[in-house]
Amino acid sequence: MNVKTKILLISDHLQHNTGVAVQSKHLVEGLIETGKYEVVQLGAAIYHENHEPVKVSNDLNIIPVNGFGDRDTIRSMLVSYVPDVLIIFSDGRFFNHIFEMEDEIHQVCPIMWWHVWDNRPAPHFNKKKYDCIDKINCISDLTYDLCKIVTCNDNKVDYIPHTVPENIFKKLTEKEISYHKEKILGVHKDSFVCTWVNRNIRRKRPSDVLKSWQMFLFSLEEKTTKKEAILIMHTDPYDSAGANLLEVAKYLGILENVRFSDQEASFEKLNILYNISDTVLNISQAEGFGLTTLEAMSAGVPIIATKTGGLTRQLIDKETLVINGIALKPEVTTISGTQCTPYLNEDFVSVEKVSMAIMKMYSIGSKKRKEIGLTAKNYVNKSFSYNKMIRQWDESISETLSLWKENYKRIKVEEIL
User: Fold this and answer.
1) Distance of CA 391 to the CA centre of its chain
2) Cα(225)–Cα(349) distance, rounded to whole angstroms?
3) CA neighbours within 13 Å on the CB side: how many for 326?
4) CA neighbor of 235 nearest in space, from 257, 275, 205, 192
């Protein structure tokens, strides 16, 4: 019987609904399906009422942890589970304890990181963190380029983007779309629908989305004498980290043309949401990847997005330069930062430009939008293949393990001599 490679994964709890959690789930399920792996996840980033381990299957166990674990938790897992590889996946600020104890971890296994960096310039202040990692698999090609600059080591860095399994987000039939539009929108079933799926936080610019929508509605009324358009915002309008979006919509006088979807949605319901949409919008000022636009494209929906971070590769086919919707070039780039992240660019597109982009998407008509959506779907299948992602991770784990074993043995021999 083949001995399976044991992975210790630290990331957002894979039964949660964050982008990291969803991608953790896709990654783990794909690796387990190969028959080569068993996984223990330290399920992070959510409040746990019960910290008892959960056995999901014979090859997957989840141990709820506060935060992203601590040194004692990691030491305990190294002794009790003895992983063949440790994979971390989320923002680097959550893993300082991993970087600080990397010498202890390396006595047992190599460390891999599924990593994303939101924007330029190259984060040279991350070099000490990168030096602790055996393999950095980058979620966006921008992250890949920036990491190579910082590490000066092409062999340490690879590009493995986020993906979605093809059977999750898919194009529904016209009959199904009409049924769901009527059920969800009622008398507005024939309206132009723009959808925004993000967390209500400043970086995602939700209030600016509403302002852009207001300006679009004014232009639409001038053009058609009507405002037959609905903006669906799948978010919590009362999120304590963001603005009160209901009050913003009231202030702008557009509440009649805005719908808030604030309940946690299954993949099936999200797929319906994308399918009833004419376009999906993302104008984040910094976006490492932007998973919801990829999901929308998988369902055959054209996108409107800012050319920033990981969104650029989704918007524009690098090989053919075909645009999968409307690419918004940043008009202003500012430098932001914190004590931990001294510098990071933020890219802004004006609400006027966003409004004009929505009007352009409206004006091209349903037939053209469907053509762009089909092109986008084919592009996702080609450039963001789920099966390819799993294959790349499988190969990356194997190569990393092999190199770590060689280096570990060499170090031990040198120590003895």
Assistant:
1) 19
2) 28
3) 24
4) 205
How far apart are alpha carbons 403 and 410 in whole angstroms?
A: 11
**Interacting residues of 88 by C-beta distance below 8 A, sequence separation 6+:** 9, 10, 11, 95, 98, 111, 112, 113, 114
Q: Give, in words, the CATH class of 174-383.
A: alpha beta
CB 283 within 8 A of CB 275: no
* Cβ atoms of 14 and 39 closer than 8 Å: no
Q: What angle do CA 118, 279, 308 make, to 5 degrees?
A: 15
Host H or E run for residue 306: strand 303-306
- Among 391, 387, 411, CA closest to 399: 391
Answer whether 118's CB lies under 8 Å from 343's CB.
Answer: no
Q: Any idea where the domains of the chain sit in the sequence?
A: 5-163+386-416, 174-383
Q: Taking every pair of C-alpha atoms in the chain, what is the biggest distance, in angstroms?
A: 86
**Helices H / strands E in the chain, number of each:** 15, 16
Same fold, 5-163+386-416 and 174-383: yes
Distance CA 346, CA 6 (A): 39
**Residue 89, strand partner residues:** 11, 114
DSSP track, 364-386: THHHHHHHHHHHHHHHHHHHS-H
Q: What top-level class would CATH report for the domain 5-163+386-416? A: alpha beta
Nearest to 51 by CA among 22, 29, 73, 82: 73
Cite the DSSP H helix spans in 81-140: 96-100, 102-105, 127-131
pLDDT by residue for the chain (417 residues), tens only, comes to 579 999 999 999 998 888 999 999 999 999 999 999 999 999 998 877 788 999 999 999 999 999 999 999 999 999 999 999 999 999 999 999 999 999 999 999 999 999 999 999 999 999 999 999 999 999 999 999 999 999 998 899 999 999 999 899 999 999 999 999 999 999 999 999 999 999 999 999 999 999 999 999 999 999 999 999 999 999 999 999 999 999 999 999 999 999 999 998 999 999 999 999 999 999 999 999 999 999 999 999 999 999 999 999 999 999 999 999 999 999 999 999 999 999 999 999 999 999 999 999 999 999 999 999 999 999 999 999 999 999 999 999 999 999 999 887 544 434 433
